[in-house]
Structure to design on (254 residues):
């Protein structure tokens, strides 16, 4: 009970949140690291996986590269990066010490769910739907943009959502190489037997992870084109049924 009270006291003490190494600054550092890693992973993984899925080839390579990424511990990658001449442990602007090494390690960690879900999402589109699109005279690009991508969107967005929460939680390992983020609060607290501090840092990480999950879930619902298309209120006087391939392709020849 005393530990819980001490943890609560640590969390509500303003002095622990302010200053150069306050929890607020470390929280913002970790958010910046996580979002940067996600942007890089999406920029690398999405075009590659979606295009390979559209072509229907290269799946073995894409999935197995993703599996290798899952098998290699992120901390092992981080340790290799910080001990190498590049990227090393140099401070990278607002990212802090070993910032570039941490961003690269987290980007590689985020790639597997992004690549796997995106590739599988495109490949799982029904062959009958693709044939119907071809029968309507769609080009390969039109079929990809107007048929395959909207139908694959739920799985693609799910991959991004999973990667975001996983990257945020994993970013705490940066503290093991004196890097940025809330992991410093956790490791410093337990190292100095200040367990209230360590648990307080863990609580903040968990609460933010839950908030990110809720925000990401809401974003998926908002951005999912199949959900929007099936909404009964999408346009006055229109039915709630999602458009068929014929409807989507009806203006190709116009």
């Amino acid at each position: 009970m005393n530990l819980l009270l001490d943890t609560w006291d640590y969390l509500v003490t303003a002095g622990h949140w302010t200053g150069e190494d306050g929890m607020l600054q470390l929280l913002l550092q970790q958010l910046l690291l996580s979002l940067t890693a996600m942007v890089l992973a999406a920029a690398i993984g999405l075009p590659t996986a979606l295009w390979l899925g559209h072509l229907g080839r290269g799946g073995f390579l894409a999935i197995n590269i993703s599996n290798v990424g899952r098998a290699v511990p992120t901390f092992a990658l981080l340790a290799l990066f910080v001990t190498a001449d590049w990227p090393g442990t140099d401070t990278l602007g607002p990212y802090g010490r070993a910032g570039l090494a941490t961003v690269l390690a987290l980007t590689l960690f985020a790639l597997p769910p992004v690549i796997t879900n995106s590739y599988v999402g495109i490949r799982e589109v029904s062959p009958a739907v693709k044939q119907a699109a071809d029968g309507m005279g769609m080009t390969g690009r039109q079929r990809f943009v107007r048929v395959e991508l909207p139908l694959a969107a739920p799985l693609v967005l799910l991959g991004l959502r999973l990667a975001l929460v996983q990257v945020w939680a994993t970013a705490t390992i940066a503290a093991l190489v004196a890097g940025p983020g809330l992991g410093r609060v956790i490791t410093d607290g337990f190292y100095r037997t200040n367990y209230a501090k360590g648990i307080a840092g863990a609580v903040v990480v968990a609460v933010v992870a839950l908030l990110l999950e809720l925000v990401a879930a809401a974003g998926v619902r908002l951005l999912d084109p199949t959900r929007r298309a099936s909404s009964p209120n999408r346009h006055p006087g229109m039915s709630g049924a999602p458009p068929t391939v014929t409807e989507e392709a009806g203006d190709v020849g116009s």
